[in-house]
Amino acid sequence: MIKLENVTKIFPVGGEPYYTLDHVSFQIEKQEFIGIIGKSGSGKTTLLHIMSGIDTPSVGTVNINGTDISRLSPRELTKWRLHNIGIVFQAFHLIPTLTLLENVILPMEFASPFQKRQKKERAKELLASVGLADKWHLFPDHASGGEKQRTAIARALANDPPLILADEPTGNLDSENASHIFSLFQQLAANGKTIVMVTHDGDLAKQMPHTLELKDGHVISSLADNRDKGLRVQ
Ligand SMILES: Nc1ncnc2c1ncn2[C@@H]1O[C@H](COP(=O)(O)OP(=O)(O)OP(=O)(O)O)[C@@H](O)[C@H]1O
Q1: ipTM computed for the complex
Q2: Which of 46, 55, 218 to mutate to test the pocket of ligand 1 (most atoms within 8 A of CB)?
Q3: Assigned CATH for 31-54+71-224
Q4: How far is the C-alpha of 156 from the C-alpha of 69, rounded, in Å?
Q5: Fewer Cβ within 10 Å of end Cβ, the chain: N or C?
Q6: Whole-prediction pTM
Q7: Model confidence pLDDT, tens digit, residues 101-123
């Protein structure tokens, strides 16, 4: 489903090329739950941004569900992303002037053929599915960190993408909320979504079926048993 070949990202630092990612290649099958781990600065966020098309590789290709996203124009990429990827960020990135419900409706406004009423119903169902049935009218400033992240997950699911990319989704939460959010991702994986999650949290990483560790822009190891086909590192 996801195939990265020789993905390399070079930033010029002080006039010299700096390899944030250095020939990273791996393959993730559909419906897997993969953790990306590694020390600060190892390239995790850059990798996730390249997998989501937020950033482009300097060299290499990213193929997702048969589409080489490295070849899409910015306009094509935006359209493709709406239906194919849901993204969850550490800092939630909700729009403060919209209610939780309106935040979840927003991606459907750009992509979905549904009528206004259907979009509202779907957003309410999604919020209920993450435990926020009675909170949809709140504005983000009046929601807790855990509630904001639940909303961000509901928003990521709005257009029913097969792949969810999450960058430190528990990083701003206390351990109880982190554990609830992690359970939600586990449920999504059990229900057939492919999940790729960057995490610093060693306890969470141990609960993931597969992990890929980065060091200085290279894939160096995996914690769990990657021998089956879920994750193949070349
Ligand atoms: N736009 C940029 N220009 C120059 N260097 C950059 C740029 N973006 C990232 N880097 C560098 O690339 C390296 C990897 O950054 P990245 O954010 O991917 O790491 P990370 O593993 O996600 O770190 P953290 O866990 O702290 O979030 C870092 O050394 C960073 O300074």
Answers
A1: 0.95
A2: 46
A3: 3.40.50.300
A4: 19
A5: C
A6: 0.91
A7: 999 999 999 886 778 889 999 99
